[in-house]
Amino acid sequence: MLSRRGYALLLAFAVAIFLFDAWRHGAQVVDDAYIALRYSRSLVEGHGLVFNVGERVEGYTSLGFVLFAALCLKLGIAPIAAWKGLSLLAAAAAVMGATRLERAALRDLDQRATDGSTPFSTPSFDPLLSPLLLLPVPAFAYWAFGTLESMVFGGLLVWGLVLGLREVETNAMRGSAIVFALAYLTRPEAAPLFAVATVALALREWRLRRPDLRFLRRHVVNTAIVSATVAAHLWWRFSYYGDWRPNTYYAKVTGGTEQLLTGLQYAGKFALAFPVLLLALAVPLFLDRGGDRLRRLLSPTAIIAIVALALILLTIGLGGDSQPFFRFFMPVVPLLAGLAAAAARRARGRGRALTAAALALFAVHVIAAHATIQPYVAFVADRTTRVGAAVGTFFNQRLASDDLLATNTAGSLPYMSERPALDTLGLADAEIARRPIYISSTGWAGHRRGWGEYVLRRHPRVILFYNTAGAREPFYLGDRELLELPGFRFFYRLKTATLPALEHSISWPAARYPGFPFGRHPSGLIVSPDLGLEARFSTEPIGFTTFADGPITVTWFERDRRDDALWNDLGPPARDRVAAFVDEVAARWRAAPPPGAPDLEARAKVEALCDLALQAIDRGDRDRARSLLSDAAALNGDARSPRVFLYIANLAALTGDLHAALAAQKELLRFTPDDALARRNLAVLLTVPAAEFQNQSVQSSAAPGG
Question: pLDDT for 471-482, tens place per residue?
């Protein structure tokens, strides 16, 4: 049996792990927190609960968190720090609530003695075990300092259930409905969970108190309180946003087999991290088999398991989540911990063998919770947020105040840019969220929407593919569709910039991981400029990866301001009118005032470099040719030689660099609008499928010297 000293050692061990995980993850922030924060800032600034001024789209999930952050901003309190403080208080409440559920489940298990069975022996020292199951779990520590609503929702859910069970015991109001109403304002899943809990609790009371049905008044009052809260919120949502459901629902819930498979995949990862806690769902099956079967079915232990299972099934049905440490499943962890703790305490009363088994399961619980890739996922999520803040600041200094910025990451980048932003995944955009086309795949919950043609119609100044620092190649649905559009290829030009390494990087514990989650390279080093990281690998004494700070490379597509008149007059070309569009563009450039005379000496230098580049191409040394042509382009301002653009376009076509080929061919046409071959080559580049760009047919149409 567990002695006082043994319990104290285990509790100290659990607290030490919690403090270590809090130190490791406590400063981390997920990008989606800044989506809510942007709404909060808009509200404080007088624009209303909007992502962009004048666009009423509900792109957040937790109204309570948004309003809390707005209050903090109004009072001059840092909202991120306030969110973390609130989550920490909720974590403490969740631990306390789990101990209450543990006691309730324990009383259920003790009913064996009253049904004629042999009673459990009660140890002289019988401590609460729920804290031992919650504190040494890194996911619990992570969300205890989280900047999303998961821990607050979990704490409210636990206490709503605790107070509901207490109301059944005392036949008096204890405030469970108020707690569930607050939980609903934190996350909408509280409404169906309240319904499940209320039906189960009412049936339990009916079994205990029949034929006296006066207890139903309390359940009616509780239902009225929660229903009034839900109805008031829905009425306000419809009157303000014009829809009964949030925009995030349309963006994330795609339905179909893929969504269910994603949810099951999400649940499978959770099961691997929390196998012992999931076993607690079977605890009600071990209640005494004699006596009233309905009474066992409606016991407090069974009700706790029913609510936990309802949340698990609801999360699976919604397709899971992409945030670190099982965000959607965290609220169920305290419920399962209460059940598992009660079962462990009864096992201690049944002999040394079961006590040893309980301790072994505790060890499995702690090891499994740590043997996941989630710490690395959390590190990358935080890094993405910090890079987004740096990139947003960069665009704040680069763009005009009314320039629209399109990005797949709607958090820290738009927030720090302080510019109108188009969320190309649709969380904060109603058109994309409601488009009935999405990526049919598992593993990307909430990241399947996109609409390249719509994004192009919005005419943003800047478009970023993939992540907060952007990318050359498309990743999401909208990225891929954009790259196939002739209008995007013509009006947007690839650009890059290098930003300094992050000043406030995370130190060793969060930047060193066992194994090679970042991949591995024979050189022992991988540079990830989009995250501003360098990953170094070691195999002694065990394999691990160490991350170091590095410069950040920002990659984006920017609309060429020189072509604004063309956009206004011609607009983006349809795919079947590209040739006519190019001819019209050439006519416009032909009619433009001619530039001044070139600097002949500078032109001679530029064309000499072009000749050297052509020789390098003939030798197969394309890197040398690219370097020479880059030097030639840098000197071409006064020289105004079309040859440098011809050679750059040809080399880019040979190497499959669509972006460089397009930019160079377009500049070549500016210089030689009468050249039919230049027009034809540009039309080809505007229409060739991106995946087939390296086909020989394209290369031959733009061969060197052609």
Answer: 999 999 999 999
94, two tokens: 């969740």
Q: What are phi and psi of 548, to 5 degrees?
A: -130, 155
Each residue's pLDDT tens digit, 16-43: 999 999 998 999 999 999 999 999 999 9
The CA distances from residue 229 to 157, 180, 224, 441, 581, in Å, are 16, 10, 8, 36, 56
Q: Which helix (H) or strand (E) covers residue 494, if one does?
A: strand 492-499
**C-alpha closest to that of 644 among 620, 599, 614, 674:** 614
Q: At 514, is the secondary structure helix, strand, or coil?
A: strand
Please check whether residue 574 is in contact with residue 538, taking contact to mean a CB–CB distance below 8 angstroms. no
Q: Provide the 3-class DSSP secondary structure of residue 334.
A: helix
**Residue 409: which of 321, 476, 326 has the closest Cα?**
476
At 122, the amino acid letter reads T
8 Å CB contact between 131 and 361: no
Q: What DSSP string runs through 536-563?
A: EEE-SSS-EEEEEE-PEEEEEEEE-GGG
DSSP string, 379-431: HHHHHHHHHHHHHHHHHHHHS-TT--EEES--SHHHHHHTS-EEETTSTT-HH
Residue 296: the pLDDT is: 66
Q: Which residue, chain included where needed, has tokens 């690219």?
A: 626
**What distance in Å separates the CA atoms of residue 25 and residue 377, rounded to the nearest whole number?**
11
Within 10 angstroms of residue 576's Cβ, the number of other Cβ atoms is 9
- Please, are residues 409 and 467 in contact by the beta-carbon 8 Å criterion? yes
Cis peptide before 642 (omega within 30 of 0): no
pLDDT of residue 542: 73
Percent of the chain with pLDDT over 70: 90
> Which of 390-399, 508-517, 628-637 is predicted with the least confidence, judged by mean pLDDT?
508-517
Q: Are 399 and 421 in contact (CB under 8 A)?
A: no
What are the structure tokens assigned to 703, written together?
């061969």
How many angstroms separate the CA atoms of 655 and 649, rounded? Answer: 10
Tell me, letter by letter, the H, E, C secondary structure of 241-290.
HCCCCCHHHHHHCCCHHHHHHHHHHHHHHHHHHCHHHHHHHHHHHHCCCC
Average confidence score pLDDT of the chain = 87
Residue linked to tokens 């042509």: 629
Residue 117: helix, strand or coil by DSSP? coil
> Quick one: three-class SS letters along 194-249?
HHHHHHHHHHHHHHHHCCCCCCHHHHHHHHHHHHHHHHHHHHHHHHHHCCCCCHHH
Residue 699 has pLDDT above 90, yes or no: no
CA contacts within 13 A on the Cβ side of 388? 30
Sheet holding 462-463, edge to edge: 421-423, 405-407, 462-463, 552-559, 492-499
pLDDT given for residue 476 in this prediction: 93
Full-model pTM: 0.90
Would you state the pLDDT for residue 110? 62
Is the separation of the CB atoms in 30 and 382 below 8 Å? yes
Q: Angle formed by the axes of helices 190-209 and 216-241, to 10°?
A: 170
Stretch (H or E) spanning 49: none
* Beta strands at 492-499 and 533-538: parallel, antiparallel or unpaired: unpaired
* φ, ψ dihedrals at 299, nearest 5°: -70, 160
